[in-house]
Design brief:
The chain is mainly α. The protein has a domain of 59 residues. Helices cover 68% and strands 0% of the residues. The protein contains two helices and no strands. The radius of gyration is 39 Å and the shape is rod-shaped.
């Protein structure tokens, strides 16, 4: 009984499917419409905004890096000048200079060049 019903259903569905497929519009007659355009436009705008944001972040990162390098160079130059001055003063006094003599009064002595945190000194 079930086999006969299945066969009857298959016989009636196959011509119906062929009829529906025959009535389908041609591929060149189908377009995505307004919804497809809006979705595509939205994705394109999101990509443009992401690219602009990425470029802004990269410029900011490069500027921060240049600024940090500049400050590190200034600190190194100041430390060298202070060390040279301390060496001249101790040479004039006849004392032997110590490595920490140049940075004795400097509050940034021993600070990391990047984040200003004190380093562990030996």
């Amino acid at each position: 009984m079930i086999a006969g019903a299945t066969a009857h259903l298959a016989v009636s569905v196959v011509p119906l499917a062929a009829e529906v497929l025959a009535q389908a519009p041609a591929d060149e007659d189908v377009s995505p419409g307004l919804l497809g355009f809006l979705v595509t436009f939205g994705v394109a705008m999101a990509v443009v905004l992401l690219i602009l944001s990425f470029n802004r972040q990269m410029r900011r990162l490069n500027a921060n890096e240049r600024h940090a390098r500049y400050e590190a160079a200034e600190r190194a130059e100041a430390a060298e000048a202070a060390q040279a001055e301390a060496a001249q003063e101790t040479a004039a006094d006849g004392e032997v200079p110590t490595p920490d003599a140049a940075t004795e009064g400097d509050p940034r002595a021993g600070a990391s060049p990047v984040d200003g945190e004190p380093r562990d000194r030996p």
